Amino acid sequence: MTKKAKPAGTAKAKAKPAFIGQPVEMSGTLRLPAVAKQVPYPIEALAPKVRQQTPAVGQRATRPDARLHGLGQTKYIDDMSMPGMLYCKIKRAGIASALIKKIDTREAEAMPGVMAVITGKDIPVNSFGPSIKDQPVLAYERVFHAGDGVAAVAAVTEQIALEALDKIKVEYESLTPVFDPVEAMKDSAPKVHPPASNIYATKLIKKGDVDKGFRQSDHIFEDTFSTQMVEHVPLEPHCSIASWDANGRLTIHSTLGRITLGRTDMARTLQLPISRIRMVATIVGGNFGGKNEITQEPALAVLSKMTGRPVKGTFTRTEEFIATTTRHPIIMHYKTGVSNEGKIIARKVRLVLDGGAYCSWSETTLGKACILSPGPYNIDNIHAEAFVVYTNKTMTGAMRGFGAPQVCFAYESHMDDIAMALNIDPLEIRMRNAFHEGSSSPTGQVLHSVVVKDSLLQAAERYGWKEAR
Amino acid sequence: MKKRGRGIACMWYPIGFTVAANPSAAVVKVNEDGTATVLTGTVETGQGSLTVLGQIAAEELGIATDDVHVVSADTDTTPMDTGAIASRTTYVTGNAIRLAAEKAKEILFQVAAPMLGVKPEQLEARDRKIQVKNYPQRNIGIGEVANQAQFVMGQPALGSASFNPPTVALDPATGQGKPFATYVYATQIAEVDVDDETGEVEVLKIVASHDCGTAINPMLVEGQIEGGISMGVGFALQEEMLFDKNGKQLNPNLTNYIMPTSLDMPEIEVDIVKNFDPTGPFGAKGVGEPTAVPTAAAIMNAIYNATGARIFSLPATPEKVLAAIKVAKAKQLAKTKQLAKPKQKPKRLTAAAAR
Questions:
Q1: Does the ipTM surpass 0.90?
Q2: Is B72 exposed, middle or buried (0-12, 13-18, 19+ CB in 10 A)?
Q3: pLDDT tens digits for A103-118?
Q4: Cα torsion at B13, B15, B16, B20 (round to 10°)?
């Protein structure tokens, strides 16, 4: 597939949509690098006085990178360039569930300026994932969601790489997709990863006797809450550069937030000893959980090896949405038994997490969501169960809070409904139930350094909660 | 008409991974002039973690934050770290760095002890000096000690250490166990204006009261809280990835995926709850993720307080809020009618049948 370098030639810019969904982003206009204004480097130490102080803890010390950010001098991965560097673009499937019958890359390979084209079969071990290794680097044989990459191109310019994507012909045999997590739980639903069940992880927390608790309760409240899928939207999109030295050692410059584990994944997918891989990050331009695992890096490494040149891949904003992890939508059913005084006696929670096409960090999200779902309250009788389900949608994974913002929305909305029905002030009902030092968590852990009541009172004081009543 | 409401939400959130090992290792090297270099495998993702980690090393060595240079994010030079995830950097990496700095400090104490004519246990590091406890006037500059250690004693002052939060596996049948080493707590109160004719919600103010143990750097804690709230506002009111019936995304761009800008941000009042966790470095826990947790809940409760409209699915778009207001008004009407008939319980309140 590799061929000799040819001059870029006179490839015309065609504004042909090369992408699924909105074609706006990926239209074939050449991306010019954003160059910061020239500023002299600071020779004198400009650090404020506060940083000269000891003790260091508790100081409002300024960040060493603050000046660089302020002057636009921070070098992110996409600001880096290497001699002879090629640009990678990935062909996305655009179909949610299908068998790949044939991928024809010949026309793309013949284009002047295209140096290499690869598909899933070129990746030594074409699977990865933080727990279940269910995600292909490039989908081969089967597509699991519309954002799946099916082929990757390395070319001398981004423009040519983009145009080459159009020349790659993929034949699909479409399969029946499943998008609704509740539907996907049924036996009759199409399997996303056959023969595996769509329910790929479960969690159960049991404390006390929830049925007995409900019998002892004066009132029972029941509601269902749900949340949506959202993206991390970091300012800086995913970007990596792969390069090999003549000794066969691979260096990856990457926006990853977890380089040690990124290196392990690279070693596994490329079948290399860990000692032959170096992974370097810079200051990441926003992570929020979205840069916790490799994405395109093994493909970049293979392209770089085939061409003998460094290869850079930068995701477009559209790819950030369709081809990286997102926050789990959760359907949350709450049933709570309370006394006349507003004391929670029993709580039953059932969570269904939409896992999207791949597991990613779903098991962690599932666990945290389930453990945290009863809320920061002393409840003797708890039954919390959670399921995470495959669907043919963009994969969900780690995102700031791992399921906690979702369950907090549910347990706190539920709490206010209970307070309203019992005519108790929302602050008061929380104070009556909140954890204290030595409280037992839903998993039976004795808690220390507990200040939930302090935070309630301080926030109420600061807001003027009682005065505003 | 615009209606004003306020809503409260509290939360708890753990530090580190659920049971699974998530270690961090660190190396601290004291240079011969008393400044220090820290090696960590974590990555600065914009939150200011390297500043906090430098402050932790500086505190342990009794030097200033500016005296510490933190090297990070290169697998060839820095030791293993589980990375910037699970709000674990300050607690787990911070503990590893504190332990590594302690080991380097012990070497300095061994070198300084004969110079000051005391035992190493009697020494402390403070204000760039190694001094005798309770006799601070008996001291030597840390640079002098480090120089002595390296060039006279031939024993450079460096230390390496690792830390992994202690946990107990969960029983698979009951889920009982100790999944996390520690937790943080927080409360946020939101004040909103809801237009009951359009369903539009404006968040006016959020008071955020967060526990992070010791705030190693209060300014960075405030930054995290403000950033988390912006994410929470988007999650509450605006952001949603939409799919067509074939599973293709409809809005994979920032034109149609609406997220908060500075104009959507409310006035934020940050309040750090005083706390000290003896298991954390200098009492610190963490603050990264929890800041985004209670915001949406507080805003939904404020909408409820303003209009009686309960939102059951996020985001609370004007369409959903308007529909919920109509439901609330209908319920209110039904309730008023019911009140005419005595001894009927409100609809939402069901007494347990089994009593």
A1: yes
A2: buried
A3: 999 999 999 999 999 9
A4: -70
Flag whether residue B355 sits within 8 Å of chain A, measured between CB atoms: yes
Q: Is B3 in CB contact (< 8 Å) with chain A?
A: no
Q: Which member of B44, B240, B289, B319 is catalytic?
A: B289
Nearest by CB to B46, which of A177, A283, A449? Answer: A283
Looking at residue A337, which CATH number applies to its domain? 3.30.365.10
B197's tokens = 């004719």
- Please answer yes or no on whether B269 and A462 come within 8 Å at the CB atom: yes
Within 8 A of B179 by CB-CB distance, chain A residues are: 367, 371, 443, 445
A444 belongs to a structural domain: yes
Residues of A within 8 A of B13 (CB-CB) are 372, 401, 404
Predicted confidence band of residue B146 (pLDDT cuts 50, 70, 90): very high
Three-state DSSP at A301 gives helix
Residue B235 distance to chain A (closest CA, Å): 7
User: Which domains are seen in chain B, by residue range?
Assistant: 2-14+180-332 (3.30.365.10), 19-163 (3.30.365.10)
- The answer to whether residue A456 is domain-embedded is yes
- Chain Cα centroid distance, residue A407: 18
Position A111 in a domain:
no
Residue-wise pLDDT tens digits, A129-142:
999 999 999 999 99
Residue A198 lies in a domain: yes
Whether A373 and chain B come into contact, CB under 8 Å, resolves to no
* The pLDDT of residue A39: 65
Q: CB–CB of A371 and B14 under 8 A? A: yes
Within 8 A of A287 by CB-CB distance, chain B residues are 43, 45-46, 84
Query: Is some CB atom of chain A closer than 8 A to the CB atom of B220?
Result: yes
- For A381, the domain range is 181-231+325-463
Q: How many domains does chain A have?
A: 1
Partner-chain residue, chosen from B18, B74, B235, that has the shortest CB–CB distance to A230: B235
